[in-house]
Design goal:
Elements: H1 2-28, H2 30-33, H3 43-46, H4 51-60, H5 64-67, H6 72-83, H7 128-131, E1 160-162, E2 165-168, E3 174-179, E4 185-190, E5 200-204, E6 207-213, E7 218-223, E8 229-234, E9 241-242, E10 248-250, E11 253-260, H8 262-265, E12 279-284, E13 290-295, E14 302-306, E15 312-315, E16 326-328, E17 333-337, E18 352-357, E19 363-368, E20 370-371, E21 402-405, E22 411-416, E23 424-427, E24 438-439, H9 451-470
Parallel strand pairs: 20-24
Antiparallel strand pairs: 1-2, 2-3, 3-4, 5-6, 6-7, 7-8, 9-11, 10-11, 11-12, 12-13, 14-15, 16-17, 17-18, 18-19, 21-22, 22-23
Helix pairs in contact: 1-6, 4-6
């Protein structure tokens, strides 16, 4: 009888843990992951993750709000239920170790794509001379090698190419330096949390540094040749802060954009939504010392109202900077684009172009493109308790401002890739008067005006206003 009890004990404990995990999942996770919420992976995708990765997310990652108040045992039960059977992750490089070290001695003489936009103006343009690839070559391209990110369910960090080496971050918390010709691994830097930003490479002292940010609000400088840490700086204390845009380097100063996941955290009706404000942080590139931090919303969030459950709500909040800033050395300005608000009342600097002074971080001007846009994931989920009164439409600027100089001497700021929209926006950075933001409009059911036509008409109006302001 004792032997029977001993044998059934572990099975009973495992069954209890599984039932506990299932209950916690239904209470805290299913509303988004099975309710069709945007940017929330479905249950089948979650099952591809390891228990350790789920646990890390619940403790200090994107799901830390859902993990609040749970004991260590409950966190363990929930992570094991979500991930299913524990599978050991293969964390080693998938293509083998390179026999030689990274060489950046002739990096500027070889084809390259550095950071997000390839230059500080964020042009995202590659000349034929630099690309060394013609249109006639495209049909003949074949797969040469592939690299798998161990422990990651998706890849969303853009690689950087410098000196024949690819530098790329990963969701699994590692930054890799890979040989561009063979895919072998030069070095791996262990971050411990996901890296979504592109990597900026630059000469530093007698060597080269790789600059990037992680999904806990830390900025890094790593030796680009050896993969050893030079410095690490925590640039925002908000628990939901993260860095998605590549840092931009100019005159020895690193400009780092700050965004957040509070749009997801804020969907929990027990969460006091929301208190994060987007910002731009200037760091001394050599040391990581913070020179200044400027917020996209100048007003500190304050109590606004309570939701139906009695949870205190705060605002204004949001206006994250998702993408890499553009540098304007002629005017000593840094330009960023912002996302939506997370709570009421909506601010005048969300979904906007913003110019900061390079030397002081002072906000010089802003131009809002969609007014009244406040949104959390709750607006598309089953429980909409924490959806702001504005209810979206969630039209963040998701890509960088592009600074261009036209043949006639005019200068324009442009941005393409507003989320779930086809519009391209442009304006003159020299004057900003006489232009009103677009008001959020609810499209009538059955409207015959297509989104493409609306975007095209809006783009033409912006271009005309830009031409008038610069004339």
């Amino acid at each position: 009888m004792v032997l029977a009890l001993t044998a059934s004990g572990p099975a009973l404990a495992q069954s209890t843990a599984s039932a506990d995990g299932a209950l916690l999942y239904r209470e805290r996770c299913a509303g988004c992951h099975e309710g069709g919420a945007v940017r929330a992976p479905d249950f089948a995708t979650l099952r591809q993750m390891s228990p350790d990765r789920v646990l890390s997310s619940l403790r200090s990652g994107s799901m830390s709000t859902q993990g609040q108040g749970l004991s260590e045992a409950q966190l363990d039960h929930l992570s094991r239920f979500v991930a299913g059977a524990a599978v050991a992750e293969n964390t080693g490089p998938s293509n083998g170790k390179c026999p030689d070290a990274v060489s950046l001695a002739e990096a500027l003489a070889k084809p390259r794509w550095n950071g997000w936009g390839a230059n500080v103006s964020q042009h995202r343009f590659q000349s034929a001379e630099m690309a060394r690839l013609g249109a006639e070559d495209v049909p003949r391209l074949k797969l040469k090698w592939a690299f798998g990110f161990p422990g990651a369910t998706r890849a969303d960090a853009q690689p950087t190419l410098m000196g024949g080496t690819l530098f790329v971050g990963s969701r699994s918390g590692k930054v890799y330096a890979l040989d561009a010709r063979s895919g072998c691994t030069h070095w791996v830097f262990e971050v411990g949390v996901g890296v979504r930003s592109a990597i900026t490479i630059a000469a530093s002292g007698e060597g080269w540094s790789a600059y990037f940010g992680d999904q806990r609000g830390n900025a890094y400088a790593v030796d680009a040749v050896t993969g050893t840490l030079r410095w690490k700086t925590h640039i925002d204390n908000h628990p939901a802060a993260l860095i998605t845009g590549a840092p931009t380097l100019g005159d020895g100063v690193l400009y780092v954009p700050v965004s957040s996941l509070e749009e997801v955290s804020g969907s929990n009706p027990r969460y006091e939504c929301c208190s994060f404000r987007g910002s731009l942080v200037a760091l001394e590139a050599a040391t990581g010392k913070i020179l200044w931090q400027s917020y996209t919303i100048s007003q500190t969030p304050s109590p606004v109202r309570k939701n139906a459950l009695g949870t205190q709500l705060w605002g204004p909040s949001g206006a994250p900077v998702w993408s890499s800033p553009a540098i304007d050395p002629d005017r000593r300005m840094i330009y960023v684009t912002t996302g939506d608000n997370y709570s009421d009342p909506p601010a005048a600097t969300s979904d906007a172009f913003i110019a900061f002074r390079m030397d002081t971080g002072e906000l010089a001007w802003s131009r809002q493109m969609t007014a009244g846009d406040a949104f959390t994931v709750a607006c598309t989920g089953a429980d909409r308790t924490n959806c702001p009164e504005a209810k979206g439409p969630d039209l963040d600027f998701g890509s960088s401002p592009i600074l261009v100089k036209l043949p006639d001497g005019r200068r324009l700021l442009m941005c393409n890739g507003v989320r779930r929209s086809t519009r391209t926006t442009s304006m003159s950075p020299s004057r900003i008067s006489g232009f009103a933001p677009r008001r959020r409009a609810r499209q009538a059911r059955g409207s015959r005006l297509s989104a493409a036509a609306t975007a095209s008409r809006w783009t033409r109006a912006l271009a005309a206003a830009s031409m008038r302001s610069s004339s």
